[in-house]
Amino acid sequence: MNCGPLPGTGLDAHPGVLLLVAIACLLVGAMIVLASRARAKRRAQMTAGPGSGASSPGAAVVLLMILVVGGAVAIGPAPPAQAAGSAGSASSGCVAADDFLTVIQTSTMAGLAPGVAPVPIAGLVVNNSADSTHIVAVEVEISSVAVAPGSPVGSCDASDYVLLDTRMPVDRTLGPGASASFAGASIGFSDSAVDQDACQRATIHLLYTANPR
């Protein structure tokens, strides 16, 4: 399982607002039906004939359409969780999920600089499936480095940083909904003779891979 960004799907609105919109649609539909039936009744009283007591089929269709639209608004999917990184930090965490596993970074990494010791990496792996899953380990790597706006001109990439002990053993069998912690890796700044000023306030994006057995 790879921990990467999720696609933006769903409606970005509060569920209470969606419910109010759905109720308003239903009320409007009911008013249209009542008004149509009243007009049909008046016409029936003025001109007698077969089918004079039937309700307006057009109104029924309108109500059905409003019910369908209102229901779709009410049950629209919620917006997904977003991967978040702290502003001005040297790296960002990763929160992502697939059909089976979720990997969540719990450690905070900031202030990576020449001469500063590597900081630890830790997190949780969660079993989303309905079956038990054995997790062997979680591996971490640098997927990309984003240079901060306004930083000095120059190059800054994964080679300017160092990851240590990238494979973090878990060796746990997780039941449905269960989680296990992982730790052991660390990340630091790799000092070199080349100008690295472009790495000031850079953001490192980490990629986690959970290896089930």
Characterise this structure:
The protein is α+β, with helices and mostly antiparallel strands. It has two domains: 15-74; 91-212, Sandwich (Immunoglobulin-like). It has two helices and nine strands. The protein has helices spanning 15-46, 57-74; strands at residues 91-92, 95-97, 101-105, 119-127, 133-146, 161-164, 167-174, 179-189, 203-212. The strands form two sheets. A five-stranded antiparallel sheet has the order 2-3-4-8-6, with no helix packed on it. A four-stranded mixed sheet has the order 1-9-5-7, with no helix packed on it. Strand 2 and strand 3 (101-105) form a beta hairpin. The longest helix is centred in the first third of the chain and has 32 residues, at 15-46. Residues 1-15 and 51-97 have low confidence and may be disordered. Keywords: Membrane, Transmembrane, Transmembrane helix. The chain crosses the membrane at residues 16-36, 57-76.
